[in-house]
Amino acid sequence: MDWDKLKLFYITAKIGNISKAARELNVTQSALSRRISSLEEDLGTQLLNRHLRGVTLTSQGKAIFPELEKAFNKLESLNQIIQSMDNTLAGDLRIASNFGFIDTWLNYYLPDFIKKHAEIRLSVLVKEKIVDLIDEGIDLVITSFFPDSPLVEKEFLMSWNRCLYASEGYLKQFGIPKTVQDLSHHRLISFGESKSFLHEDRDWHLKIGTEPGERREPYLAINSMRAMLTAAQNDIGIISFSQESLLLKDTNLIRVLPEIQGPHIDIFMVYLKQQESLERLKIFRNFLKEQAEKTKITPGIKQP
Q: Can you spell out the DSSP letters for 256-280?
């Protein structure tokens, strides 16, 4: 018996609408429909009547729904008792985030965490789109955007602030911009096209100081944070980069137009509410918050 499928059926029947149930469960409507259909195939009977306005229980669905309700209420009570007793750290922890955050920040701190907590087996996964915590078995997502859901908790981790940087060699050759309008006469490096970051304005420096609706043409477009940094270090042009990124500490890039700051991006740790008391997840969240506090200001960035 697949209890995951039964739970999806139970919640959908309780809500009476597949699309609303999918939003609450933080899964796609098509994925939820497939799981319920699969359950019906397993049982050899139809449990839900599908209508334009929602779903209703068939006679077979009505027969099992009350028993499922009792079972899941008991399981929830048991789960709360078990979680309150679970003070062990040993076990797996699956973490997801986009490549840029893993590469420019998280990657620097993972070795320290592993040395301190060798009993926790970490899996770090690159996910460029919204994660389905349940279907993908993810314990924690680190992201700047996640849809609201009554099943998940969004805990603030840190803010990233985008600023402008260039190399000393570039500024000697092309001069130091004094105003945002001066950027129109400089070589600007942009992040380029990316469907993964539609909610983030990574190329704000192409528009600031221009007329409404106008946008500067980038000298180079490349959708890799590390590659952008390398280009700037090689005197190619001016980049927009998060000042909290730890990649910056290994460079001699100079802050350009220091009085100007780009978009402010809040980053959150997202996890299922039922996982909140899981000890190893709490340890990892607290570890990340400690590191975030240390990197509010990135050292070693020169001013022109």
A: ESTT----EEEEEEEEEGGGTT-HH
